[in-house]
């Protein structure tokens, strides 16, 4: 069997993995210990992110003619690929946070929703909160004015009840004759 025939299924697997991806990150993982790599993989898996090591030449073939072709420039040396289909910022967030403790881990580049970013751009994206957190912030912002309005109405109603009670408790004044 020819080498090309052996590599074709791997190229197909890479193509299928990145086909509907919202983001793909290229990460230099050299220097990570086995324990660190295992922990990183666990965190990424829990977030629904695919994290794999592929040969650069196979990735180049798989991304040829796709929106991820811009990553070709960063495909040198040992690389791992973090791919997310659901949350576009999850791989960058998790890897950047993990890289604070594991200094050997380095983000090289990434494509998020069709836009190519270098290492600095990916660090900026890593600071964007996740989808769930953004939705909860939005919901909180929408509920805040309604909750404040309800609180004011309640205070007005309580104040009105208090003035009614005060009027009933005070004896009626009789005109001085």
Distance between the termini: 123 Å
The CATH class of the largest domain: Alpha Beta
Element pattern in H and E: HEHEHEHEEHH
Beta fraction: 5-15%
- Which consecutive residue ranges, at least 5 long each, have pLDDT under 50? none
Kindly report the name of the CATH homologous superfamily of the largest domain: Ribosomal protein L10, N-terminal RNA-binding domain
Q: How much helical structure, as a percent, in the residues?
A: 40-55%
User: What is the residue-averaged pLDDT?
Assistant: 82
Give the total of domains.
Answer: 2
Secondary-structure arrangement, i.e. CATH architecture of the largest domain: 2-Layer Sandwich
CATH topology of the largest domain: Alpha-Beta Plaits
Going by helix content, strand content and strand pairing, the class is alpha+beta
Radius of gyration: 29 Å
Question: Quick one: biggest sheet?
Answer: 5 strands, antiparallel
Count of individual beta strands: 5
The rough form would be described as: elongated
Summarize the structure in words.
Keywords: Ribonucleoprotein, Ribosomal protein, RNA-binding, rRNA-binding. Belongs to the universal ribosomal protein uL10 family. It comes from Lachnobacterium bovis. Forms part of the ribosomal stalk, playing a central role in the interaction of the ribosome with GTP-bound translation factors. One of its GO terms (biological process) is translation. The protein has 177 residues and is of the alpha+beta class. It folds into 2 domains: 1-128, Alpha-Beta Plaits, CATH 3.30.70; 131-161. It contains 6 helices and 5 strands. It has helices spanning 3-18, 34-46, 56-63, 90-99, 119-126, 131-169; strands at 23-28, 49-52, 80-84, 106-112, 115-118. Strands 2-3-1-4-5 form a 5-stranded antiparallel sheet. α4 (90-99) crosses α5. The longest helix is centred in the last third of the chain and has 39 residues, at 131-169. It is elongated. 24% of the residues are buried.
């Amino acid at each position: 069997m020819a080498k090309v025939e052996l590599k074709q299924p791997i190229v197909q697997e890479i193509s299928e993995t990145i086909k509907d991806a919202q983001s793909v990150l290229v990460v230099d993982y050299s220097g990570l210990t086995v324990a660190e790599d295992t922990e990183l993989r666990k965190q990424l898996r829990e977030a629904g992110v695919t994290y794999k090591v592929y040969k650069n030449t196979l990735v180049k073939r798989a991304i040829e003619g796709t929106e991820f072709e811009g990553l070709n420039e960063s495909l040198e040396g040992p690389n791992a690929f973090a791919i997310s289909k659901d949350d576009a910022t999850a791989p960058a967030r998790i890897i950047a946070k993990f890289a604070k403790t594991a200094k050997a881990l380095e983000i090289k580049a990434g494509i998020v929703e069709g836009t190519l970013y270098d290492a600095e751009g990916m660090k900026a994206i890593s600071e964007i909160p996740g989808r769930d957190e953004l939705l909860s912030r939005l919901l909180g912002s929408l509920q805040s004015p309604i909750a404040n309005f309800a609180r004011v109405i309640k205070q007005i109603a309580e104040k009105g009840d208090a003035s009614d009670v005060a009027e009933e408790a005070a004896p009626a004044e009789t005109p001085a004759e």
